Amino acid sequence: MDVYDIYIEKCTAKIDDMYAKGRRIKFTQLPSSVSEIRKDICIKVGEKESSGVILREDTFIELGNPEMGSCSILLYTDKPAMLNDGRITLIGPDINDSGVNNLSFDEIVIIGSLHGNDMDIVELESLCRNKNATQSFPFGQIIMLGGKELTEKDFESLRETLIIGDQIEGYRVRSFSENIWSRVSKQAVAKGFNFETLGKALMIIFKTAHPKIESMEVGFVTTNKDDISILKEYSKQILKTSKEIVKENWKIKGYDIECSSDCNTCDDKPVCDDIREVLKDKMKKNSTKNG
Amino acid sequence: MINIFSQLMMEANKSLYGLTIDPQNASKGPVVLGNGDFFIEIPVAFGCAFSDLTLTGANGTALPTAAELIDKGIETGVGSRMCNAIKVASYYLEAGLISKPDMIITSNSCCDSMTTLGILMNGYKPWADVPKFTMDAPHSFDEESYLYFGHQLRNAVTFMETVTGRKMDWDRLREVCVESNKQRQLLLEFQELKKAVPCPTEPDLARQGTEYTTWTSDRVTPTVTAWLEQLVTATEQRVKEGKGIDGVNEKVRFLWQDLAGSWASGTVLARLQKELGAVCLMDYVSYATWTPIDLSSEETMFTSFGKRFLLEDAMNRQALHTADLFCNDILQIVKEFKCDAVIMPAHIGHRDTNSRMKIVRDLCREHGIPCLVLGMDIWDKRYMTPEVVFDRMKTFFEVSGLI
Fold first, then answer.
1. A20 at the B interface (CB within 8 A)?
2. H or E stretch including B249?
3. Is B336 on the interface with A (CB under 8 A)?
4. Residues with Cβ < 8 Å from B42, sequence gap 6 or more?
């Protein structure tokens, strides 16, 4: 299972490159075992641990509102050594480390899209410290998994684990077709919820659901739309690979999910057309007979 | 019980009545006739009426004369297993009951029945002189497809300009898209609120809200935005109070993986909710996955339109694409909205869905989700009556240990 290795290398290289260029990057190293991670997390993680809904007024921050930019990537490999197990990387501001969360939508979009470097964040922070509005970060999430026994057949179940539902207290992923759009509650932030917390929660969920996982890294990007766009470019390529895996997995089950037959392309269309004509005549005759 | 929600429902229903044949025929021109396959913000911004013949047919099946209309539709020669909404539309067309439009815009759309209706409209002899434009919708969902279909929609605008001799007001289109984005955000917000247990209000308001926003003559107007604001605010209040639907003791939450059609909501689903506490959380139309229209440039706007049309519009999402996407949506809804069961109405006209019954059964079995396949007609209650559907669902909930 090495089809994603090239993207794991690309994502890792991108992070290293940003770090080398002096971008604000925060690394956190967690222990490998789930029980150890659980010992040091400020919120509850598990089925039904989230109340179900985070109302607009209870929202501290939205992550990945599509107008801000959003991207979710899931990669895995059968070479666990490729990953630095337990590492969480944050590129950009954290949920609670500044007043950036209080930016107005326009300020983030205008300044964030013009430059997209650390100076923006400093500038934005100074602009918005006294503002009150709850707003949104662009949001990129990269989950990388390694396990000697992971194969293409694990794709669907790993993808399903991405449906977080009510498993993280104070965090809800809003239903969304391709990207990731979520909310963090004020209550959770008051308990200390930040990206490290989210990374821990994801590690608990994935490692618990899939004992085959031997190493796991999580990366978050919250800088600007441009950085998210780079991830989106990777994501497009990754999606193509994923589609091939899905197609093959369905073939194993006995289905060709890309069959594109319809009436207009069917060889038997003339036969159906003839039958339809016969039925039409029959109905006309019947309706004449019945007056 | 009269409350804010029933008032909102009445308001939306009043507007939805406008989709039946007489009000549609009374539309002020220029009139674009289509069959459920156009991007509605375009005609709204262009200042012309858009009449959707599929919807007119579907609404015909809600009239007291539904059975007669369906039977007359069969006499037009369309296949017996063709969707009955299309049969009624065919009858309206062939009987000369539809006012002559100023132009026709169709596409190879999400279901074979609708495509057939498009062919009938384009080949209808009395309208031989009506200008026609056909778009080509790819059956795929990726950036290239969105861009491709966005170009088709852009070409449709040029076609409209040529036919009417008017120019598209691009500022107006942008304004309409801003309003549309606002409305979709509110609908998504309402969808979020349905995750609460118990469900805070009639979940069917999501379907009605989508129809009100997309299909009625009030579409993309501030009236609808205000309606949605009221809906979300009132529902948030109920979530805060921990209240469920008035008069309903919620016991089962289920997904109805199809359209609700013209009769199921008011009969079977309402009765299930009231008598058994079985709440239908979601159907095709109410499942919202919209991305806001990207207003950065004309190109991004049309690419967004392409994406909305191909991947995010009700029924296009479920019918145009792979079984994998269909199954993934089911899992997503069940997990996110805490559904206890999946009902596959297996509408006889939805051959795409019917071809996936075994796949969905297998999926549900693998995941331990109770699943019932009905095999009904969502437009014609004679095929499987509301009583039979109710009894089958009741028995299913009982044997699954859900009630």
1. no
2. none
3. yes
4. B153, B156, B157, B160, B173, B305
A90 and A159 Cβ atoms separated by less than 8 Å: no
Q: Which of residues 64-93 of A touch B (CB under 8 A)?
A: 66-67
Are A253 and B362 an interchain contact pair (Cβ–Cβ within 8 Å)? yes
Query: Testing the interface with A: which of B90, B122, B289, B324 to mutate, by most A Cβ within 10 A?
Result: B324
Q: Chain B, 267-326: which have a CB under 8 Å from a chain A CB?
A: 288-289, 291-292, 311-312, 322-324
CATH number of B4-168: 3.40.50.11890
Q: Do B75 and A287 count as a contact with CB atoms less than 8 A apart?
A: yes
Tokens for B164? 């009417």
Q: Which among A178, A255, A262 is the nearest to B112, CB-wise? A: A262
Q: Among candidates A55, A37, A39, A60, which has minimal Cα distance to A190?
A: A60
Cβ distance B335 to A165 less than 8 Å, yes or no, reads: yes
Return the closest-CA partner of residue B197 out of B332, B372, B340: B340
Q: Looking at beta carbons, which residues of chain A come within 8 Å of B356?
A: none
Pairing of strands A70-77, A215-221: unpaired
pLDDT at A122 over 80: no
Classified as helix, coil or strand, B280 is strand
**Which B positions 221-250 lie with beta carbon below 8 A of chain A?**
236, 239-240
CATH number of A5-253: 3.30.1650.10
Distance between CA atoms of residues B155 and B165, nearest Å: 15
Which residues of chain A neighbour B289 with C-beta distances below 8 Å? 175-177
Place of tokens 């107005």: A104
Per-residue pLDDT tens for B66-92?
A: 999 999 999 988 887 889 999 999 999
Work out the angle at residue B392's Cα, subtended by the Cα atoms of residues B387 and B393, and round it to the nearest 5 degrees: 100
Place of tokens 């290289």: A13
Query: Tell me: the pLDDT tens digits for B336-387?
Result: 999 999 999 999 999 888 889 999 999 999 999 999 999 999 999 999 999 9
User: pLDDT at position B345, please?
Assistant: 96
Residue ranges per structural domain of chain A:
5-253, 265-291
C-alpha B157/C-alpha B176 separation (Å) is: 15
Which of A54, A56, A276 faces B77 most closely, judged by CB atoms? A276
What is the mean pLDDT of the segment spanning B200-220? 92
| pLDDT tens sequence across A46-91 | 998 887 799 999 999 999 988 888 999 999 999 999 999 999 999 9
Helix orientation angle between B222-241 and B204-214, rounded to the nearest 10 degrees: 170
Task: Write the ipTM.
Answer: 0.88
Per DSSP, the residues of chain A read: --TTHHHHHHHHHHHHHHHHTT--EEEEE--SSHHHHHHT-SS-BSTT-S-S---GGGEEEEE--TTT-EEEEEEEES-GGGS-TTEEEEES--TTSSGGGG--HHHHHHHHHHT-SHHHHHHHHHHHTT-----EE-EEEEEEEE-TT--GGGHHHHHHHT--TT-BTTEEEEP-SSS-EEEEEHHHHHTT--HHHHHHHHHHHHHHH-TT--EEEEEEE-S-HHHHHHHHHHHHHHHHHHHHHHHHHHHHHT--TT----GGG-TTHHHHHHHHHHHHHHHHHHHHHT-
pLDDT band for position A177 (cuts 50, 70, 90):
low
Q: Which of A68, A159, A175 to mutate to test the interface with B (most CBs of B within 10 A)?
A: A175
CA trace torsion B107, B113, B116, B118 (10° rounding): -40
